[in-house]
Fold this protein.
Amino acid sequence: MHVPPGPGAMEAGLADVVFWGALAFALAVAFVVTLPVNHWMIGRGRGHAVVHELHGHSHGHH
């Protein structure tokens, strides 16, 4: 399979600064986006553990 040349996260290897920079950026964006959503859900009693209990799941029995 031929990968066209060009700078970018998809072409970067594990030792490449572009890869780690893109990963850090993606994680930072995900944190900023999900933090207020999680805070809102937990404040209304709809956190992760509560949702799993409502569906009959527990972390020990996946």
Q: What stands out?
A: The longest helix spans residues 17-43. The radius of gyration is 19 Å.
